[in-house]
Amino acid sequence: MRRRGVTVILGALITALLAVGVMAAPLPYVVLKPGPTVNTLGSDNGAEVIQVTDAKTTTSAGQLRLTTVNVQSQVELVWAISSWFTSSDAVVPRELIYPPDRTEKQVEQQNAEEWTESQDSAITVALTKLGYPVRTVVAKVTDGGAATGILRAGDVITAVDGSAVTDPSKLTELVRAKPAGTALTIAYTREGKAATAKVTTKAAEDNVPRLGIEIGTKQNAPFKVAIDLDKIGGPSAGLMFTLGIMDKLEPADLTGGKIIAGTGTIDNSGNVGPIGGIPQKLVGAKKAGAQVFLVPKGNCAEALRNAVDGLPMAEVATVDDALTALKTFTGGGTPKPCSAE
User: Fold this and answer.
1) Three-class SS of residue 115?
2) Which terminal residue of the chain, N or C, has fewer Cβ atoms less than 10 Å from its own Cβ?
């Protein structure tokens, strides 16, 4: 009997240890949780989020808050079970966030690059809306490329075959509109002097016609705009940065004293793109006191399935849509709501 009792106790102990091991073992999932929100019109760690040099800025009574998602990358069974029963969290396969062919560090690096690109695009769109179109600049001439010996780093490209280059994407569009081997007339300014040159495009490995240059942008304004906010990645803050820049530089208060949250990528043409984690961002916005949420049109169906009580949602496909929504909402009206289509 004594031996049998010892056996039973040992068996129970081993079972308990195995259970603990299973509960503590990492799973191939990640947990998405509501992340912090940041007022783009305010400060973070003692520094203004949007910084303007050599221009007068205005102060708004309200807030324009970008929203984020926290990713818990190491998930144990006990945490997964807890998150499954938490409505604001989502347990998703790890490969959706961290593809198997990429390391976690590589994904974080990509997110950091997209974060920087979103800021550049936000500045481009905001300044263009304010009457200061950003100039398309040659950042580097590729050795052996079509523009070698013709264009130089620092040249500002203004037109291709007479069509104005309004932003980098327009330059790409104009170059790709004609087959490789076409001689294009490139208008540019160099050290303030206008000039034109013929550049015959070359086909890259993907058979796409190229000028053989790397493109950058340069602010065409008598002031400088910069964004100082780190520890956040991805491109989803583009829309809120754009609105924040415009609000700080325009006399009018876009917020109308309201707390407005939102999300969405922004491209150089002012189009608002969909993002991930909309359910968590809605919850985070509500906790931050948001009175309306700007939702990219491509996220509206998902947003409607995860609507948060007391937080109306406005559908936006462009920055102009967002400005219209703000004007309507702050004026006491109801902006265009999200539709499931």
Assistant:
1) helix
2) N
Give 295-341 pLDDT, tens digit per residue.
Answer: 999 999 999 999 999 999 999 999 999 999 999 999 999 999 998 76
Query: If 0-12 CB within 10 Å is exposed, 13-18 middle and 19+ buried, where does residue 291 land?
Result: buried
CB neighbours of residue 184 within 10 Å: 19
Helix (H) or strand (E) holding 323: helix 319-330
Section 127-151 average pLDDT: 93
Under DSSP, is residue 41 helix (H, G, I), strand (E, B) or coil? coil
Q: Is the predicted pLDDT of residue 41 greater than 60, yes or no?
A: yes
Note the pLDDT of residue 220.
Answer: 84
pTM above 0.85, yes or no: no
Cβ neighbours of residue 298 closer than 8 Å, sequence gap 6 or more: 273, 274
Q: In whole angstroms, what is the distance from residue 234 CA to residue 191 CA?
A: 35
The tokens of 124 are what? 């481009």
Residue 272, C-beta contacts closer than 8 angstroms, at least 6 positions apart: 238, 239, 264, 265, 266, 296, 297, 316, 317, 318, 319, 321, 322
Other residues' Cβ atoms within 10 Å of the Cβ of residue 20: 11
| Per-residue three-class SS string for 279-304 | HHHHHHHHHCCCCEEEEEHHHHHHHH
State the number of CA atoms in the 13 A half-sphere of 292 facing the CB.
Answer: 26
Cα–Cα dist 23/77, whole Å: 5
How, if at all, do strands 265-266 and 313-316 pair? unpaired
Phi, psi of 5 (to 5 degrees): -65, -45
pLDDT digits (tens, 9 = 90+) for 72-98: 766 555 555 555 556 677 776 767 777
Query: In this predicted structure, what is the pLDDT of residue 309?
Result: 96
Which pLDDT does position 26 carry in this prediction?
59
Alpha-carbon distance of 146 to 136, in angstroms, equals: 18
